[in-house]
Specification:
about 425 residues, alpha+beta, Heat Shock Protein 90, five-stranded antiparallel sheet, five-stranded mixed sheet, 12 helices
Length: about 425
């Protein structure tokens, strides 16, 4: 039975759990108020009773015929036993001797029947005075407590419980909004935002979810852009290959000519596929905390790739200025992708100059090509855009993503001198 109750509560939503807790707390408070509190006050009431019983002793000693409305008394001396006129209101006269035998000490209580009686006793050599009363005083005090204090306390508990319910409901609603945000992530709704006014743990939780939402949204946008870019990148060489195969079949061109072009386009395809594979591997390793940076010496890599692109542009003045130890975090394959892609774009747009400068915290690529529209520079890393002489394509977006994953800064900027465009610069800040 206990386990069924626990399982039932566990399966409830937070709002219902909170409701049950509030109702249970209210019941416990009321039970405590009605049962426990009066019992806790009983010693206080009894102290008042004994003080009341002690008051008439001196008066009784001088006037044994007097009596109090609430107090009965017995006086026993050498001449006999005397009782107050109201004694029979409490006891049968026959019980006088029984009571005298029961009472011990200066004060106490005893039970006869279903009632409790309190006494106080004063003794001398030849006289014993016993004052008595029943528990009606305590009962009256409890009634007064019920009529005065209990309503006040009950109202206070009700107000506090109501405030707790309001606060709890607000808290649950805020948590529910965070839950809705997480649920929306499952539904691929990455634009759903909540902003709480209160700066507390729920707000911190929301901020964490918001950060996760932005990260997922960023990755989703990047994935969509990459798919778009990849489709564009792969479509062109495939179309070229298809066209040259058709032309060779139609004897428009020779098979040798066709094969040469097809070979070149296959290299383009292979390069794009390799870049995608490297990036996907990096993303996977980063997401699973398995990526391990290496210390990469890029001197030979820069030299090799510079020689490679020199063969493509013999008309370009090439410069390689290494001013600092060129060891960098990452992997050899990753840095090859970065440098190869930047070189590949800068060679296309260069007029007569391509230079690379390596300093302690920065690698700078420069060409003297034409100005790139500032709007294009902002979009070039994430969107498929056409450049002045063709396309920037997939390469720079991959470089930007790799830089982001390594917490590098990668940017493009036009160089101006007295309003004259002098070239383009790509900078990787470590």
């Amino acid at each position: 039975m206990k386990n069924k109750i626990i399982n039932y509560v566990k399966n409830l939503d937070l709002k219902r759990q909170l409701g049950y807790i509030i109702v249970f707390s209210l019941l416990i408070s009321l039970i405590s108020l009605i049962i426990i509190l009066p019992n806790l006050l009983t010693p206080f009431y009894e102290k008042n009773i004994y003080e009341l019983l002690n008051q008439p002793l001196s008066f009784i000693e001088s006037n044994t015929d007097s009596s109090s409305n609430n107090i009965a008394f017995i006086v026993k001396n050498s001449t006999g036993t005397y009782i107050s006129s109201n004694f029979e209101d409490y006891f049968n006269t026959k019980k006088v001797n029984l009571i005298l035998k029961i009472v011990r000490g200066n004060q106490g209580k005893f039970i006869i029947g279903n009632r409790t009686y309190y006494y106080s006793m004063d003794t001398s050599d030849d006289e014993k005075i016993v004052t008595l009363t029943d528990d009606s005083y305590i009962k009256s005090q409890r009634r007064m407590l019920n009529l005065t204090i209990f309503p006040v306390v009950a109202i206070t508990i009700f107000i506090e419980t109501s405030l707790l319910a309001i606060w709890g409901n607000t808290l649950v609603n805020r948590i529910s909004k965070v839950k809705d945000k997480v649920d929306n992530l499952d539904n691929k709704d990455y634009d759903h935002k909540f902003k709480f006014k209160l700066k507390d743990e729920v707000d911190s939780l929301n901020n964490s979810v918001e950060y996760m939402r932005k990260e997922i949204n960023s990755k989703e946008e990047y994935k969509n852009n990459m798919f778009q870019n990849l489709s564009h990148e792969l479509k062109t060489p495939i179309s070229v290959i298809s066209s040259y195969v058709e032309a060779a079949n139609d004897k428009v061109i020779t098979e040798t000519e066709a094969l040469k072009t097809i070979e070149d386009e296959i290299k383009v395809l292979a390069n794009d596929v390799n870049m995608i594979l490297e990036l996907n591997k990096l993303n996977f390793l980063k997401d699973n905390n398995e990526y391990k940076d290496e210390v990469v010496d890029i001197t030979e890599l820069l030299k090799d790739l510079t020689e490679k692109y020199k063969m493509q542009r013999r008309d370009v003045d090439w410069g390689l200025d290494i001013q600092d130890e060129n060891v960098r975090r990452g992997t050899y394959d990753i840095w090859k992708v970065i440098i190869d892609n930047i070189y590949g774009n800068f060679v296309v747009y260069a007029d007569k100059i391509v230079k690379v400068t390596v300093t302690k915290n920065k690698i700078t690529f420069y060409n003297d090509g034409e100005k790139i529209d500032e709007k294009l520079i902002k979009d070039i890393f994430t969107q498929y855009k056409k450049g002045i002489k063709g396309k920037f394509g997939l390469g720079l977006s991959i470089v930007a993503r790799i830089a982001e994953l390594h917490h590098y800064r990668f940017r493009l900027e036009n160089i101006e001198d007295n309003g004259q465009i002098q070239g383009l610069r790509a900078i990787i800040e470590l």
